Amino acid sequence: MTKLRSIVCFSFLAILAFGVNAQAGGDAVAFAAGDATTSQAAVYAAFLARVPNDDGSLSADTAISLSNILAAPAGTLGDYYDALKDRSGTVEFFLWDSDGTSMFYETAADSPGVGLDAMGYLQPGRTYTVRLAEILSKIKGLPEDEVEFTGYGWVVGNFDAIAGTYSVTIFGLGFTQNFEFTPAVGHGGTLTGLQIQATSP
Q1: 101 with 152: CB under 8 angstroms?
Q2: pLDDT in tens, 187-196
Q3: What are the extents of the domains in the chain?
Q4: CB-based burial of residue 41 (10 Å sphere; 0-12 exposed, 13-18 middle, 19+ buried)?
Q5: What's the pLDDT tens digit per position in 142-169?
Q6: Could you identify which of 16, 46, 143, 193 might form a hypothetical disulfide with 41, taking C-beta atoms 3.0 to 4.6 angstroms apart as the criterion?
Q7: Are strands 194-197 and 37-50 parallel, antiparallel or unpaired?
Q8: CA distance 64 to 68
Q9: Closest by alpha carbon to 3, among 172, 132, 176?
Q10: Is the dihedral of CA 118, 119, 120, 123 positive or negative?
Q11: Under a CB-based contact definition with an 8 Å cutoff, are residues 52 and 58 in contact?
Q12: Do residues 156 and 149 touch, judged by C-beta distance below 8 A?
């Protein structure tokens, strides 16, 4: 059964390799940064997977890499960049499993992975790398080898721009598929990420 799940996961990744990547260059619509938006930027992952297996070599996991790109030299990215004020903050993960179950995790002082500061903030110029299994272990309070997930997710940086990639790997098959979080830099005419609309006070 676990081998079948690995094969299904591999098949889905192959479909994504030709489907999602081709769509990633589409026109993304983003809110303009300004008084009507919060200082949050969101990026989307179409497929995330953590599939454990009795044979660890046939398990699948997702490596996530997120960057706070707000360390560019002053003036290099124009007026839009220079107007941005919130340069660092925590990172939030909103995950939906294939059965519709939703999960949430926000980085903190004890967060797994590398690249965050002592408070769990992602500072300008830094990159946060973490595996999906590590995040799920924190959410569920279970060891990594007991957590499972196939679904999608939104990642929200509590600062003005975020970018990243994620790689789904089936270790025993030597297979890795790399994806870019969307919208990426330059999509939709913004620096990166969808600016999240502020709610009325």
Answers
A1: no
A2: 665 667 777 7
A3: 2-197
A4: buried
A5: 999 999 999 999 999 999 889 999 999 9
A6: 193
A7: antiparallel
A8: 13
A9: 172
A10: negative
A11: no
A12: no
Query: What is the pTM for the complete model shown?
Result: 0.77
Residue with tokens 């940064």: 33
Determine the residue type at 101: T
Q: Are 23 and 44 contacting, i.e. CB atoms less than 8 angstroms apart?
A: no
The Cα 88–Cα 49 span in angstroms is 28
Q: Is 2-197 in CATH node 1.10.3720.10? A: no
Burial (Cβ within 10 Å: 0-12, 13-18, ≥19) of residue 102: exposed
Contact 68, 123 (CB under 8 A): yes
Q: Structure tokens of 136?
A: 């799920």
- pLDDT for 185 beyond 50: yes
The count of other CB atoms within 10 Å of the CB of residue 119 is 13
Please list, in sequence order, all residues whose beta carbon lies within 8 angstroms of the beta carbon of residue 17, skipping any fewer than 6 positions away: 177
| Tokens coding 134 | 């590590």
Residue type at 29 in one-letter notation: V
